[in-house]
Each structure stands twice: as C-alpha cells, then as structure tokens.
C-alpha cells in the first residue's frame, strides 16, 4: 500500500438526534462502532434505503461509522455551487482532513492511521444526497444562491468523501497527522 500524509483539521460529532448536522469537538476516542454518542455509532445497524438487497431493518454490518471529507473537496463543492464556502458540519462529516485532495476516490480497503493508535478502513464513497444541500441552502441567502438543495447532488458528485469503519480503536485529536495507506488492489475478475 502506498502511504500519503494528511492533517486532521476537525473532528465532529452528530449527537443531536434531531439532525445529521455535526458539531466540532477537539478530540475523541474511536471505538469499534465509531464515535460514542454519534448518530452513526454501532458495529451493526438496520438496513435502510442504501442496502436494497436486504429487507429494511435487517441487522447488518455498519459500514458508515465515520464520514470523512476533505477541505479540498469542500472547496470544489462550494465552487461548483458558486457559494463562498461549505462547512463539513453541513455535510454531516465526522472528520475533515487536508492534504489528500483525492479523498473521495480512495479505494475500499484503504486505511487511515492515526498517531493515537486508531485505524479506519475505507468502506467506500459517500454518495451525495439532497439533505446536505438543504442544510447548505439554510446557510446561504436563497435570493443570492437559489436552488442549492437541488443542485447539491450534481455539484458534490465524486466529491462527497468516504465512509469508514473503525478497524482499530484509539484516540484522535484535531491537528493529528494521519497516514493514508491506499489499497492498490485491482480485481483480477475484471
């Protein structure tokens, strides 16, 4: 696996049950299951509209414990929407990193290793949906920036970040230097 460096710019938690919007915290302990108290915490969860191969509510592995976005992707989404900025909170992100601009194209099985011992495994791309677009619209004047919710999915395509599972528990702090190990495996069946 090829190694790359990245900086942890923010750690965020979605601990308000009424919204997916996250808030910043200076550090946390990652456990198997994610960030304790976060809305996506858990080793397993009930299948939803993303796992159509299972009846809704079937207990399955939680591949969406941690959502990671990059500053670079947030800037491109903002540029695509013609707004001054996008905050990771509005995207429901748990981690904001910088220094790895191709984050959303990170292959499944790639790892993010942290100096406090924690390790995340990439479970795939986080596909954009309309809900973050609605949150972005709430934070930008609709008269100046109309229809952001409707435009978000296209603007964030291949820029929405990744979802990860905790592979190894440990601590994470804002300012940590992460090591990203890119899985270069290619499928011999293709």
Which strand order spans the largest sheet, edge to edge or round the barrel? 1-7-6-10-9-8-12
Given the helix and strand composition, which structural class is it? Answer: alpha+beta
| Global Rg | 16 Å
Quickly count the helices.
3
What sequence of helices (H) and strands (E) makes up the elements? Answer: EEEEEEHEEEHHEEE
Count the beta strands: 12
Q: What is the percent of helical residues?
A: 10-25%
Low-confidence stretches: none
Average pLDDT:
93
Q: Tell me the β content.
A: 25-35%
Major sheet: 7 strands, mixed, barrel
Overall shape: globular
The termini sit apart by 20 Å
Describe this structure in words.
The protein is α+β, with helices and mostly antiparallel strands and 190 residues long. The chain is 15% helix and 32% strand. It contains three helices and twelve strands, in the order ββββββαβββααβββ. Strands 1-7-6-10-9-8-12 form a seven-stranded mixed barrel. A two-stranded antiparallel sheet has the order 3-11. α1 crosses α3 and α2 crosses α3. The longest helix has 11 residues. It is globular, with a radius of gyration of 16 Å.
């Amino acid at each position: 696996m090829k190694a790359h460096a990245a900086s942890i710019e923010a750690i965020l938690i979605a601990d308000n049950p009424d919204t997916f919007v996250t808030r910043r915290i200076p550090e946390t302990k990652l456990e198997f299951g994610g960030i304790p108290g976060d809305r996506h915490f858990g080793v397993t969860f009930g299948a939803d509209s993303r796992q159509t191969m299972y009846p809704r509510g079937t207990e399955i592995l939680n591949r969406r414990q941690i959502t990671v976005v990059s500053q670079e992707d947030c800037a491109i989404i903002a540029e695509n929407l013609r707004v001054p900025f996008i905050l990771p909170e509005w995207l429901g992100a748990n981690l904001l990193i910088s220094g790895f601009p191709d984050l959303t194209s990170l292959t499944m099985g790639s790892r993010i290793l942290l100096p406090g011992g924690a390790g995340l495994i990439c479970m795939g791309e986080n596909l954009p949906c309309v809900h973050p677009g609605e949150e972005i619209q709430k934070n930008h004047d609709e008269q100046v920036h109309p229809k952001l919710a409707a435009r978000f999915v296209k603007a964030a395509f291949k820029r929405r970040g990744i979802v990860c599972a905790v592979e190894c528990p440990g601590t994470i702090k804002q300012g940590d230097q992460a090591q990203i190990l890119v899985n270069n495996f290619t499928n011999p069946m293709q």
